[in-house]
Amino acid sequence: MQDVVEVKHVQGYLLELAFEDGKRGVVDLAKYASLGGVFESLRNPSYFGRAYLNRDLGTVCWPDGQDIAPETLYDMIPGGAEPR
After folding, report:
1. Which pLDDT does position 84 carry in this prediction?
2. 3-state class of 18 per DSSP?
3. Distance between CA atoms of 39 and 34, rounded to whole angstroms?
């Protein structure tokens, strides 16, 4: 498993991520915003933009405790840079 080491909100539901092995790219997390339940507050674009890197977990989190597994995010990078 590769930890997320950088996260940047690009726009809407897009996050630019970098992983500890050097792989980086942009992921579209719109489907998570439409799930409801624990992810309900992600529907608010302003709240979604408050995504941050939780170094202890090695992944992206939001203020209310939502997170997405780093391996899920890693696999979502379309054509992202290959690991160094």
Report:
1. 47
2. strand
3. 8
- Within a 10 A sphere around the Cβ of 13, how many other Cβ atoms? 20
- On whether the CB atoms of residues 26 and 15 are closer than 8 A, the answer is yes
At position 69, the amino acid (one-letter code) is A
Q: pLDDT in tens for each of the 84 residues of the chain?
A: 799 999 999 999 999 999 999 999 999 999 998 988 999 999 999 999 999 999 999 999 999 999 999 999 999 997 655 544
Output the CA–CA distances (angstroms, integers) from residue 78 to 12, 20, 23, 55, 75, in the order listed: 17, 17, 11, 24, 8
Q: Which CATH superfamily is domain 4-76 in?
A: NE0471-like N-terminal domain (3.30.2020.10)
Domain locations along the chain? 4-76
SS3 76: helix
Alpha-carbon distance of 39 to 25, in angstroms, equals 22
Please choose, from the candidates 73, 66, 78, 79, the residue with its C-alpha nearest in 3D space to the C-alpha of residue 20: 73
